[in-house]
Amino acid sequence: MGLRSLAPQLHVSFQNMNNQFNIKYPLLDALIFHKGNNWGEKYDERQTQELSKKHSALVSSSTGLSALAKVYFGSRLHDSWIEGINYQNRKLEIKFNEFTSHCFVDAICDEFELNIPHKNRVIPVTLSFLNLHHLSISRINGNNKIIPLSKQKFIPKLSEYLYDQIIFAESGKIVAGILFYTGLKGNKSYLLLELCCEEVEIIEAQREAFHKLLKGNYVEIFDLYWKKKQVGNYFDYSVAKKLIEENRKNQPLEGPRLSTDKGIRER
Length: 267
Prior knowledge:
Elements: H1 7-15, H2 21-24, H3 26-33, H4 45-61, H5 67-72, E1 81-88, E2 91-97, H6 99-111, E3 124-130, E4 134-140, E5 146-149, H7 151-154, E6 160-170, E7 173-181, E8 190-197, E9 199-204, H8 206-214, H9 219-230, H10 237-247, E10 264-266
Antiparallel strand pairs: 1-2, 2-3, 3-9, 4-5, 4-8, 6-7, 7-8, 9-10
Helix pairs in contact: 3-4, 6-10
């Protein structure tokens, strides 16, 4: 029996999963409530690291995620803010200003004193969840229960990617929970997106955006950054600035033009 014919069963089984947030998504719970986080000290750093390590192993060994998707899951889009959402015909498409690449551009602009307005520093990547069998959005109440909300009303309120946890990812079936920040007041500041889909498609447009924004300059340092990023190195502003400072002597103010490809698409 094909996966499409199993859609009703998948939906029912997803709905019947435990609605206790810390049981269903222990990693997300730990990342929110780890020691030192303003939300509390429910988990120490060691527990959080152990859960993260197990999740990384699950993502790496998954047969349901492409090599490119594995670069972004494991909360690698943490702090990336949303530039656009499209949900229709069993497809959810979210375009992000990817945080690590945005930080890299911020560091380039500061290091070389480039006058590029911050609002224009959009370095996008798009995640598309295809052939959805389940999609829901919920808040977490004071008892750690998952409380469903209206998709039509609250999916457009999602603002910033925080953490993800893959529950299952084999060929043709991916089940995951993703925690988002909304900026709404009260108990809807953080919302949980739960989904079951057949495929995840990634469209990388960072290189094209960098090319347009920097007018084809700083090619070598971008390529060095990109190579490190694609093998899992994490970049925030300070890490990006250090990389640029260490390699600045090799960077001409004008360089060969970057490729103007329309983004890398992979499922």
